[in-house]
Amino acid sequence: MIIDTHIHLDDSRYNDDLDAVLDRAREGGVKRFIIPGAHPDTLERALEIVEANSDVYFAVGVHPYDMDSFDALDFDKYAKHEKCVAIGECGLDYFRLEGSDEDKLKEKERQKEVFRAQIELAKKYKKPLIVHIRDASRDSKEILQASDAKEVGGVLHCYNADEELLSLAKEGFYFGIGGVLTFKNAKKLLNVLPKIPEDKLLIETDGPYLTPTPHRGERNEPFYTTFVAQKMSELLDIPLKNIKETTTQNAQKLFALR
Ligand SMILES: [Zn+2]
Ligand SMILES: [Zn+2]
Predict the structure, then answer these.
(1) Residue 39: nearest ligand to its CA?
(2) How far is the CA of 206 from the centre of ligand 2 (A)?
């Protein structure tokens, strides 16, 4: 089986056919799903989904793009839910910084502050982190290390193939691999993939985004993790069955899933 460790099922793009999306995935062998927290507005929808589907879990957190909603979010309410398996997605994203240099600096500082606060929450609730990093490897790594995030560990989701982050494998961090692996221009990731310890590999869709070949341009969905597993198997020269087994065990271990 496969566990989709990062799928935004609470996104409105799944509203109309969520049951069909989940069934297609289940039939294809995807047997567990984790909805990462992104914006507090969709957390109620995430709760609805996990309460209606025994194989779906969720996380609570604030994405760096939505950090302004952090202060108002009632973490306690969600983190204590029996199906809440992680804190995140949280992290740093410098890709879309706007305005003057001073504005950019300010936003970076605020992102760091909200990231640090969520690492502390993960430690408080003893849950692993789902970490989102884009164009911010050095700062992210520094914060994870300075905050002793290894106490809880987590996943660097949508791993961007930065070699600098590989050493976090020794500190309890896993690497979430998704549709990008199937892209023709994914050279960096192809080179780095064999350097990730096998016991730190996870599979994710990040749907509705980052749809793998041969479905690029369409909405992504959990069934398509089968293409990612297949590609991983070819690249690492490991039988598909073993890739599925290993990544499933890794996800079960990190998120304490049955
Ligand atoms: Zn993300
Ligand atoms: Zn995401």
Answers:
(1) 2
(2) 5
- Residues 172-207: tens digit of each pLDDT: 999 999 999 999 889 999 999 999 999 999 999 999
Tens of pLDDT, residue by residue over 234-247, are 999 999 999 999 99
Strands 84-93 and 201-203: unpaired
**DSSP letters along 107-147, please?**
HHHHHHHHHHHHHHHHHHHT--EEEEEES-HHHHHHHHHHT
C-alpha–C-alpha distance, residues 141 and 136, integer Å = 9
Ligand nearest to the CA of 5: 2
Tell me the one-letter amino acid at 101: D
Whole-number Å distance, alpha carbon 36 to ligand 2 midpoint, is 6
- Among all ligands shown, which has an atom nearest to the Cα of 205? 2
Report the Cα 42 to chain-centroid distance in Å.
Answer: 16
| 3-class secondary-structure state, position 7 | coil
Find the Cα–Cα–Cα–Cα dihedral 40, 64, 17, 240, rounded to 10°.
-130
* pTM confidence score: 0.97
Residue 41 CB-density burial (10 A; 0-12 exposed, 13-18 middle, 19+ buried): exposed
Nearest ligand, measured from the Cα of 37: 2
Taking Cα atoms as reference points, which of 39, 37, 28, 21 lies closest to residue 3? 28
What is the CA(132)–ligand 1 centre distance, in A? 5
